[in-house]
Amino acid sequence: MLRGLPPCLLLFLLLCLELEELRASASSDAELLLSKVKPALQGRKDANAELATWNASATPLCLWRGLRWSTPDGRPLSCDAGNLSLARDPGLLLVSIRLPAAGLAGTLPPELGAFSALASVYLAANQLSGAIPLELGNAPALSALDLSGNRLSGPLPASIWNLCDRATELRLHGNALEGPVPAPAGPNTTCDGLHVLDLGANRFSGSFPSFLAAFRGLRRLDLSRNNFSGQPPEALSSRFPPESFQAGNSLDPSLSSPPAGHLSSRGVAGLVIGAMAAAVVLASVSIGRWARRGRSMEMEMLDDDDDAQQQQGRLLVFEGGEHLTLEEVLNATGQVVAKPSYCTVYKAKLMGTSGATIELRLLREGCCKPDAASCAAAARRIGRARHHNLVPLRALYHGRRGEKLLVYDHVPRARALSDLLLLQTITTWPRRHKVALGVARALAYLHAAQGEAHGNVRASTVLVDDMLVPRLAEHALDRLLLPAAAEALLAAAKADGYKAPELHSMAKCSARTDVYAFGILLLELLMGRKPSEDLPSLVKAAVLEETPLEELLDAGMRPAPAEEGLGLLLQALKLAMGCCAPVPAARPTMTEVVRQLEDTRPTRTMYSPTESRSDAATPTTIAA
């Protein structure tokens, strides 16, 4: 009966049968996770701190890190008192796996395709190796897959396009996948719901995958840094910038950069308004009033024709900012909250139906690059970074006169880490460790999954909310600045003690210089002293003078020598000094830093009785 079926359909049916067998062999999602998925992700290395919580006999299911569960009727599983005993309930369904930068060193198990309700898998910035299993493409509910920044190899299985019926994002950036990209073989060849496709920085080869022109829902595409040949079809080259295709590929050299004023050749709406005034406004302003000073505001939807390219300004919108309109942004009411050397920062409230609060950064005249095309390329790189511990860039406005306005998420109830340390608000090591781990995860993600440095790691760029969840701001902003403005950032980093000794120009920022700055930040958390005091030298002097190292620690959190916590603090101090090694090659990677911080996570005995469970736990990192 099966002889007349096409080979691709026959393979699909066989895979489905295999998945059913896998599903039937486990009585619950939790059992399948423990018996198949956990060993595969962990690999042969020592026990992983995140995966160690996947333990049905010791930890309630709702506390297994990086996982989200639901009941059969779709209700999310919460960790209230009534749910702590549900670890072995066969009816609970796994809906999400989120473990980016978690030190996973194994492989992707085929059993990932057997979970009936699994909707998202975020495993970016780990060390997973091997092939992408064919079964993954047949996961019945999977809509978001991020495997960026791993060591995956082999061909891309054609079954991956079986996700087209429901997938919204597919991120495989920065692996070692090779061979041609296969075309969809199933009935759905347009993937209308797929908005993000990132296959950049792999080893794909062969002809350019022209079938992608039929993917009508794509909003972001990256095929750069591969070995493709040929030329992308006009239907794609007119929708996406050249940097989506060119770097590293042998494409037609006739592909040229867009006109200098053309910031968005995508199908995303760009709005044209009158030029914004460059003057700094009073502490409480109506953003719209100063933006329209001296001329009326004109707004219309942009097309990709020549006339539109001559309009007065463009709004380049990134993932998560599609709801923004320039009219709402510029009519927002707000106030000045900070004035760094390169911009003025506003906390603003949108006047539309959402009433949301956003952060606006107006780059100062003479600080940002005047060339629209290079700014757009840099902003796109910044705007594609999505991580729970990063403040995401949602949009960039470029006016006809060169004005540039950056739109970020506003982090509610958050303060800069520098302020919290100054006010002695975070007084225990478990709380400070929680902040350090979140920052480390953000940097590991930027380095491994995005392939770029942050460039300005310091306590003042770490925002910490009232649940002690840190979010790193201002990543890679030096890419938008003129050299003089960028060097001002470097001078400030040097004065404040965060600059790596080998860093003499912001153009030379790297992952290793970020690691050095993080080491200083970690010393700051441990010692409770300003980094301008040259903290590494203080530690070295203590070692030479044989001063007990515990005397270097912040007195407000230093435990008695007999307590378990002192050893963990000294291990963290050793890690911080390793990050501050004078020779860049001797510093660990941020992925290694994350692993070591996970391995030295404070245990419950270090928490004071007054600390709540939500404060005591380090939050699970998620990729957005």
From TrEMBL:
The keyword Signal applies. It is found in: Membrane. Keywords: Glycoprotein, Leucine-rich repeat, Membrane, Repeat, Signal, Transmembrane, Transmembrane helix. The keyword Nucleotidyltransferase does not apply. GO terms for cellular component: membrane. Residues 1-24 form the signal peptide. Its main location: membrane. This is Protein kinase domain-containing protein.
